[in-house]
Design a protein that fits this description.
Number of helices: 9
Distance between the termini: 24 Å
Structural class: alpha+beta
Strand content: 25-35%
Shape: globular
CATH superfamily of the largest domain: D-amino Acid Aminotransferase, subunit A, domain 2
CATH topology of the largest domain: D-amino Acid Aminotransferase, Chain A, domain 2
Order of helices and strands: EEHEEHHEEHEHHEEEEHEEHEEEH
Number of strands: 16
């Protein structure tokens, strides 16, 4: 983590940025967050992440105490003070100091600056495995602080030598715990569009993929996953990460395919274009 954080109107040393134990985030897990990163030391697609953060707040009936412009200025100040070469930027809005342990109050708003942990290069070269688990996140359009399921599953994921968990529910493939999921079948890029978080990287990849192939945003039956030629996941720190195995099932040839490699290259060019 960084040395300085923002909390309720002030930039503070990390040791002084504290919340009281009556915060509804602690008592009931009620709160939202969003996470963006820098690229070449500048916030990457900050307008998109702020828009999603404000939308999550609206859906949770929480009020962010600052404007997008004010938050942007605070983030720039934090990046300058913390001097982390490439940083993660975590914005959190909590339910506030509740009077009865249940009812939201005035939210607490804080911003953390932290080091980014990207997957190793070998994961992009060889692809990764996902643990397959039946689950659907509650209020999937909201980026909630509630990560009960993947944290409880962490030992199973590690035991399976998997990178993360892919959710399915009612015979439909949904999303990875912190990322979106895609398959490629018959030269079409297909990604679930129901009961999943609207990922920022997901949206960018869909846009660039449409330049050279058909993209389908629709429900993805589990049976269709088993017939995929390729698969990959997208996320802020994952970018375009090849998936070569889900559970015990090998995807395609068991290696990152040409379409996934092409999208990885296109996304790198997309990053460069935003500097």
């Amino acid at each position: 983590m960084g040395e300085y954080f923002f909390l309720n109107g002030k930039i503070l040393p990390a040791s002084e940025a504290v919340l009281k134990i009556t915060d509804l985030a602690l008592l009931r897990g009620f709160g939202i967050f969003d996470f963006m990163r820098t690229y070449r030391q500048k916030p990457f697609m900050i307008d998109h992440y702020l828009r999603r953060f404000f939308n999550s707040a609206r859906l949770m009936d929480l009020e962010i105490p600052l404007s997008k412009e004010e938050i942007t200025e605070i983030i720039m100040q934090l990046l300058e003070r913390n001097r982390i070469f490439e940083a993660g930027i975590r914005m959190v809005l909590t339910g506030g100091y509740t009077s009865n342990g249940y009812t939201p109050a005035e939210p607490n708003f804080f911003i953390l600056i932290e080091k980014i942990n990207f997957p190793p290069q070998s994961s992009y070269e060889n692809g990764i495995r996902l643990y397959f688990y039946q689950h659907q996140r509650e209020f999937s359009q909201i980026k909630s602080i509630n990560y009960l399921s993947p944290i409880l599953l962490r030992k199973r994921i590690e035991a399976a030598n998997a990178f993360d968990v892919l959710y399915h529910f009612n015979d439909q493939v949904l999303e990875v715990s912190r990322s979106n999921f895609f398959i490629i079948r018959d030269q079409k890029v297909i990604t679930p569009d129901t009961n999943v978080l609207p990922g920022i990287t997901r949206s960018s990849v869909i846009h660039m993929a449409r330049e050279y192939c058909t993209v389908e945003e629709r429900p993805l039956p589990v049976d269709e996953l088993w017939q995929a030629d390729e698969a990959f996941m997208t996320g802020t720190t994952k970018k375009v990460l090849p998936v070569v195995q889900v559970g015990d099932h090998i995807i395609g040839s068991g290696s990152p395919g040409p379409a996934t490699r092409k999208l990885t290259e296109l996304f790198k060019n997309f990053e460069d274009s935003h500097v």
